[in-house]
């Protein structure tokens, strides 16, 4: 009976969640195939990280404005336009590939353009979920979204590899377009997203003032601001570690073994899947900030374990074990935001929060690629007293420099996360 009530109350959300999952699977397969394609063309860590930078950079800095637009405009129309733009991007790649004209810089430009639309879509989608989901189901909805994300992470490398072997990149791109069509028409014809009600003075406020309201909201609530800045630091470290450098690490350590990379990424996805199931069935935590800090420390321990091993099996086991708490951390962090931000402000505050905490991601990715290719990797292959000491732990071949980066990032991440546990200011964010 409870399950029937749950399904009835979340019907629109479940329909949106299911259709978007199908579309995201197609997109993830394309992303995986493009990473393999770029690495085959360039063979450098920076060529891969630059693609991610192109995806993140415009989103981060345009989202500050996009949050106000998401609060003022129709959420459904924003999501439909963003999906349609993404489809045109896939079509552009397919056409260029068909004429043997596709180059790496084309992908960078396309990702930059798509990033602007993602900046609009993400806050609109965040608010849409809050509008479609009753407050008592916030944590469970986060669990379901993590569940689909985990399933996609598991299936995308396997399906992407199979489709690449079967018909090459064109088949992957066509499948992406088919999955997009299913999600687009489901949202267009079968899902109604309620609109938020705005106070009269807010609806007619100057645009720049509305953009700044998200920042002001965080500034006046010290606990929310501090946890946002904490995540900004964590994001920077994560992109220097296995969250941003896992592909160069595995491919370098295994002499470009795509199967090893797929296995590790699938292990990450299995951990996310297990964590998502736990979040979906477990009771909401009362002290969510402590859960966020403790689980973040556990996630960074994965970097240390992976850095000290040469075995893909160990990398996979460590990834699985640490990404279970990663889901728990993310679900509790999202629940904190939904519980403490009014619906009519969520687009602006969510965007301000995302701008602050994600502005460090491009820096981490850029610095990670530069350090790996031009500093640490060359240092670990050169003959020096320090290199000889470090080589006992991290080796001296390809990937040894990235392994040393993983170790350093892991230690810093653990220390910073655990140092937050006893800070009394976060008590304001308890349930």
Q: Topology of this protein?
A:
Blueprint: H1 2-9, H2 11-42, H3 45-72, H4 75-98, H5 104-132, H6 138-167, H7 169-190, H8 200-203, H9 207-219, H10 222-240, H11 242-253, H12 258-281, H13 288-307, H14 312-340, H15 346-358, H16 360-381, H17 385-394, H18 400-419
Kindly summarize this structure in a few lines.
The chain is mostly helical and 431 residues long. It has helices spanning 2-9, 11-42, 45-72, 75-98, 104-132, 138-167, 169-190, 200-203, 207-219, 222-240, 242-253, 258-281, 288-307, 312-340, 346-358, 360-381, 385-394, 400-419. The relative contact order is 0.14.
Report what the structure shows:
- There is one protein chain.
- The protein has 18 helices and no strands.
- With 431 residues, the protein is an all-alpha fold.
- Helix 6 (138-167) packs antiparallel against helix 12, helix 12 packs parallel to helix 14 and helix 13 packs antiparallel against helix 18.
- It is globular and about 65 Å long.
- It starts with a helix and ends in a 12-residue tail after the last helix.
- The mean pLDDT is 81.
